[in-house]
Design brief:
Elements lengths: L1 H13 L9 H21 L3 H27 L5 H28 L3
Helix pairs in contact: 1-2, 1-4, 2-3, 3-4
């Protein structure tokens, strides 16, 4: 789901003005890619404590991305219709990450 969100963000930002290439386009893409990348990196560490820490970093990236998307709508870089699905996906991923972190914490760290 996080990979699909990143793809969607790339598609949305293609329509942004060229002058936003190093602004909102870059910020949205960076935050979107950070979500699945940190999940994968944490999982690859093979230690629950490290995995949880990377999941928390992913949570931060979800909130960062959500903020950038909402701002993009407020300053008319994208329509609300284009942003509704990715913003909803951010919320779903955030809930999934919270649930996974809680489940891992209840098992204990190693």
């Amino acid at each position: 789901m996080a990979m699909t969100l990143a793809e969607d963000c790339y598609r949305i930002t293609r329509a942004f003005p060229r002058e936003e290439l190093y602004g909102m386009t870059s910020q949205i893409r960076r935050a979107a890619v950070s979500i699945p990348a940190n999940i994968a990196e944490g999982y690859g560490r093979e230690m629950t404590g490290s995995y949880i820490q990377f999941l928390r970093v992913s949570q931060g990236s979800v909130r960062e991305l959500e903020t950038h998307l909402l701002l993009a709508g407020r300053i008319n870089l994208a329509s609300g219709d284009d942003l509704a699905k990715p913003v909803e996906t951010c919320e779903r991923i955030g809930k999934m990450l919270r649930s996974l972190i809680r489940a891992l914490e209840s098992r204990g760290t190693s």
